[in-house]
């Protein structure tokens, strides 16, 4: 468990580490870079670098937290990767089921496997299930998510590297959008973000704009959140037309 700098969560919990690239959004995967760094630091959990590994010894960790937490599950992997045994996915869900004081945010690009296994999983109210989408070609992932019994469903449209105009938003409970960051980050366009914001607004869905990714992508070079000393600083700033959008679903 570690405190997270990701704006929409509090801490991360990684019972699985490692992944493989699946679609264009994976090109500059931060988790892969971080795994290499952690391996060089000789952390046993990352001794195999970015290879898929399950860590049964971490399953007890949520039971040790004294206060309720908002937890991003597997920030360093994809729980629904085909190399993760279904039995281990079920075990992770059982931990989440048995610690209802915590709110868990699970995010996957493997929407097909998510749906395939969804009836084998217990979907308690404290589990938020999301899929990652980077452009129109992968908007279908929202359709798979919509068919699951998850109580709270969300879309992480990040890194947004292309227009998304046709997508199942009406069945979602939360929308996150963000531009790509890093040395080779691909550009995000203002109208791409605005289109998704307006769709979210039409259906009354909480909208969270995480970041532009780089200040040169930001449509407002005077955005005060570009400044690292700003209380809402994000990479490249996070104002959109003068407003900071940080809406969240209701935590029951």
Automatic annotation (TrEMBL):
<dbReference type="Pfam" id="PF07505">
    <property type="entry name" value="DUF5131"/>
</dbReference>
<dbReference type="InterPro" id="IPR011101">
    <property type="entry name" value="DUF5131"/>
</dbReference>
<protein>
    <submittedName>
        <fullName>Phage Gp37/Gp68 family protein</fullName>
    </submittedName>
</protein>
């Amino acid at each position: 468990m570690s405190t997270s700098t990701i704006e929409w969560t509090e801490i991360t919990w990684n019972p699985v580490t490692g992944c493989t690239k699946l679609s264009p959004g994976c090109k500059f995967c931060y988790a892969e870079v971080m795994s290499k760094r952690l391996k060089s630091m000789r952390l046993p959990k990352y001794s195999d670098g970015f290879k898929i590994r399950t860590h049964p010894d971490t399953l007890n960790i949520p039971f040790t937290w004294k206060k309720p937490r908002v937890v991003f599950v597997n920030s360093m992997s994809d729980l629904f990767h085909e190399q993760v045994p279904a039995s281990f996915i079920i075990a992770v869900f059982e931990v989440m089921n048995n610690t209802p004081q915590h709110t868990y945010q699970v995010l996957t690009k493997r929407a097909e496997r998510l749906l395939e296994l969804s009836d084998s999983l217990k979907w308690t109210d404290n589990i938020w299930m999301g899929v990652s989408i980077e452009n129109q070609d992968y908007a279908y992932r929202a359709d798979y998510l919509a068919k699951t019994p998850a109580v709270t469903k969300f879309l992480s449209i990040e890194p947004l590297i292309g227009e998304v105009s046709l997508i199942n938003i009406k069945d979602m409970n939360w929308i996150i959008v963000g531009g790509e960051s890093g040395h080779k980050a691909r550009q995000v366009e203002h109208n791409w973000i605005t289109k998704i914001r307006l769709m979210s607004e039409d259906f009354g869905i909480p909208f969270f704009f995480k970041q532009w990714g780089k200040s040169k992508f930001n449509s407002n070079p005077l955005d005060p959140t570009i400044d690292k000393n700003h209380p809402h600083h994000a990479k490249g700033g996070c104002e959109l037309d003068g407003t900071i959008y940080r809406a969240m679903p209701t935590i029951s």
